[in-house]
From TrEMBL:
Compartment annotation: Cell membrane
Transmembrane segments: 98-116, 145-166, 172-195, 258-279, 286-304, 366-385
Protein name from the UniProt record: Arabinosyltransferase AftC
Recorded GO CC terms: plasma membrane
Gene: aftC
Main location: membrane
Enzyme Commission no: 2.4.2.-
Length: 414
């Protein structure tokens, strides 16, 4: 009976074939990333500073004692974040790290499921295994698990925020965003979305949750003020190592300050124009607008801010999912060349071409984020110019091939 199920009596559809082929690959890739690569660890350990800070917090010892002259991972969370992550130090470091890896992996899987539902898909869709395989094969998910940081949980908070925002559950959307702010403000640019959509209630818990958690944590920490005096100035600095932002790579390669500022300014203009076109002409297409604007805002913050690391690219999953929409701005090969730059786990370090390989390895993320911003800008501007030329700006800037034809608009009289 079991063997007979391996050979179906009727021909499978393309969707069924995709699921049969990709689901085993996706499941095994998830298991490999979680059980082997993440448990083994590699190169950088983001978990140990967090565990030591949580242990110090629980034992009423100083938390903010990092020496920022060293390039080793530092503990950078505010007291509110320390309060939230403190339970990880209740058990020994090894088992705590395994549980933290598992929590991030589960959070990523839940976030991917929520993304599927946001786009009207279910687990029986052929897109589901492709999404899981693509996510866990990427650098951003792999190194989040291997380095054992909190980005998987932040991704879940981000996607939950977007889902609740689209459902007009404003207070709960703000709670999701506020919880991520309590640990790190990486999603702060997303406040643009409730601002332009008039969902003002989001701001109450988005600000209130981290403030409340800090009020609780401050008296429980013996050196909370050191976060303000020591850690905040470090966070505001731009460093020239492990930094794929323009300013980081510019400093590493010794570019003059005026050139770094000019590149940041030029790309900031492209971002501003893209956001204006999205808001002016696309905001009524809610899923497209929210997910595309999210990608523009976050890729800009990674690229133009003081610090951008490759594994932040996980937060761009909602933008990449818009490829399923007929009016997506990433249905073109340059967009996915950009995605290769900031998502691929490939290393370009070369023993034969040392300098060229090092440059390709260090620059691929920066170039990928930059190309993504340029592509989105170019697509939106091209649609705007085409709509203006054809005199249909009042109806939006949808691509011409998606507009109803004249024969469809005019009823045929019998």
């Amino acid at each position: 009976m079991f063997l007979r199920s391996l050979e179906p009596r009727t021909a499978r559809t393309t969707a069924d074939v995709v699921k049969v082929v990709v689901w085993p690959l996706a499941v095994m890739t998830v298991l490999h990333r979680v059980v082997i690569k993440a448990v083994n660890g590699f190169r950088t350990d983001d978990f140990t500073p967090v565990y030591n800070a949580a242990l110090a917090f629980l034992n009423r010892r100083p938390v903010y004692t990092a020496n920022f002259q060293w390039v080793d991972p530092h503990y950078l969370y505010p007291p509110s974040g320390t309060l939230l992550i403190s339970p990880i130090a209740v058990i020994d470091p090894e088992r705590s790290r395994w549980l933290f890896i598992l929590a991030n992996a589960v959070a990523i899987l839940i976030a991917l499921y929520l993304l599927l539902r946001m786009f009207g898909l279910r687990l029986d869709s052929p897109v589901a295994p492709i999404l899981v395989l693509g996510a866990f094969a990427s650098e951003t998910v792999t190194n989040t698990l291997v380095f054992t940081n909190i980005n998987g949980l932040v991704l879940l908070g981000q996607v939950a925020f977007l889902v609740l925002l689209l459902k007009r559950r404003d207070l709960w959307a703000g709670v999701m965003l506020g919880l991520t702010f309590a640990v790190k403000p990486i999603l702060a640019p997303l406040l643009f979305l409730p601002l332009v959509r008039g969902q003002w209630k989001v701001f109450i818990p988005a600000a209130g949750v981290p403030i409340l958690l800090n009020i609780i944590a401050w008296p429980l920490s013996v050196d909370a003020w050191n976060f303000v005096e020591l850690t905040v100035p470090y966070l505001l600095e731009s460093r020239d190592y492990f930094n794929s932002a323009i300013v980081g790579n510019g400093m590493y390669y010794g570019l003059p300050g005026w050139l770094i500022l000019g590149l940041r300014g030029l790309l900031a203009v492209l971002v501003a124009v893209s956001l204006w076109l999205l808001y002016r002409y696309c905001r009524n297409d809610e899923v497209f607008f929210v997910c595309t604007a999210t990608g523009v805002l976050l890729s800009a913050s990674f690229l133009l801010g003081s610090l951008g690391q490759m594994y932040y690219s996980m937060m761009l999953f909602p933008l990449l999912m818009t490829v399923l929409l007929p009016n997506s701005v990433v249905r073109n090969w340059p967009a996915w060349l950009a995605v290769y730059g900031f998502m691929s786990y490939d290393s370009w370090l070369s023993g034969r071409w040392v300098e060229a390989g090092r440059a390709a390895e260090y620059m691929k993320t920066t170039l990928g984020w930059s190309l993504l911003i340029i592509v989105i800008f170019a697509v939106l501007v091209d649609r705007y110019l085409a709509a203006r030329r054809e005199g249909r700006l009042a109806d939006g800037i949808e691509p011409a091939h998606l507009l109803p034809s004249k024969t469809e608009e005019t009823p045929v009289r019998a």
